[in-house]
Amino acid sequence: MSGRLLRWICTGAVVGTLVTTGPPAHAAPAPEERPVTQLLTDLQQLYRSAEEASETYNATEEKLKKQRARVKALDDALAKARGAVRDGRGDAGRFARQQYQGTTELSPYVRLLLARDPQRALDQGHVLGRVAAGRAATVERLAGGEKKADGLARAARTALAAQTALAARQKKQRDKADGQLREVEELLSSLSVDQLAALRQAEEAGTAEAQEKFLASGALGGSPATRPPSRQGDKALDYAVRQIGRPYKWGAEGPKAFDCSGLTQRAWAHAGREIPRTSQEQWAELRRIPLSRLRPGDLVVYFPEATHVAMYLGDGRVVHAPRPGSRVKVSPIAANPVLGAVRPDPGGRAVSGYTPPKLPEGATSGSDLGYDRAQVAGATDSR
Predict the structure, then answer these.
(1) Cα distance between residue 92 and residue 261, in whole Å
(2) Which domains, from first to last, does the chain contain?
(3) In terms of Cα–Cα distance, which of 214, 224, 282, 297 is closest to 1?
(4) What three-state secondary structure class fits 241?
(5) Burial, 149: exposed, middle or buried (Cβ in 10 Å; 0-12, 13-18, 19+)?
(6) Active-site residue among 10, 26, 270, 320?
């Protein structure tokens, strides 16, 4: 792939060039004063920022899950260690009482000197020696157990502090994403029906143009013809297609709602392959493949920061959970600026006799930017 094509894929836009810098220092004009193309660009930028914040939240959520598991494991180990220490202290106390009460009687050396049968005394001495060794071992275990319990207690306190810090960070990230989504809602709520219709037309025209350029570039190998998927890829795609129509909700992993990476992760988990939770982790950790070798079930990652992900359907289309206010749907692969593609099962062999899944009615309908204000109003509910 040429450097020019790669730059276009990474930084191309649905309508014109996406604005990648922050807003200008002067106050932005009111929605009614902005041209439709500018409104669309502003809306895209708001969604992109919100999605980046939500993916950061998801990454922290995954860290928090692991940290909770670590705290629980340490707590369980600490409880066992403390139980062993209690038992050891009980044994040590019993030995101390026996020593005080004189139940061990004479030392084995005195027994040997006074015994009429030296061999029997020696035998008894061995027994007493073993008992003494057992007591010494018990004391040693008690000391080691107390040391282990102290270490586990310190580790548990440290792990709990890390969990608390992660939870606080996650709350800030959730609040940031909620605030950005409220900005989207406020912008959409300020638009008239005519403006929303004009936005829809501009988006559709821009997507069609971007798709035409993308296919003409040869990025898909000169033809968007569908290659057969792997067995797992076929199963993952079937799951994703069956979710068409379910609402987008940021941070959601199904089964009633999804965000973009929640859908791809759940679909591949259904196929028996665990993949990372966020789009950025999926891009970083899964095997990257050329766009020209895409097959159904592969994941297409978008934007330079890898903040959106979709599943390749074939024929130049993807299944994805687009944005808050929208629903899982089928879109052209170039509906967003493509960064690249990854394959969750690089060793999977292509199936023979593949039949693409049947799409439900209305699978391609609806805006990728979610113009239904009734849906958008519910999209900002915090988790």
Answers:
(1) 57
(2) 1-22+33-383 (3.90.1720.10)
(3) 214
(4) helix
(5) buried
(6) 320
In whole angstroms, give the CA distance from residue 68 to residue 240: 30
**Threshold 0.70, pTM exceeds:** no
Concerning whether 126 is annotated as a catalytic residue, the answer is: no
Q: Which of the residues 10, 26, 126, 260 is marked catalytic?
A: 260
367-381: pLDDT as tens digits: 776 654 434 444 434
13-23 confidence digits (pLDDT tens):
333 333 333 44
Say if CB 232 and CB 272 are below 8 A apart: yes
Give the Cα separation of 165 and 167 in Å (integer).
5
Active site residue 270: no
The closest alpha carbon to 328, from 235, 258, 383, belongs to 258
- Please indicate whether residue 10 is annotated as part of the active site: no
Which segments within the chain are labelled E, that is strand? Answer: 287-289, 299-302, 308-314, 317-320, 329-332, 338-343
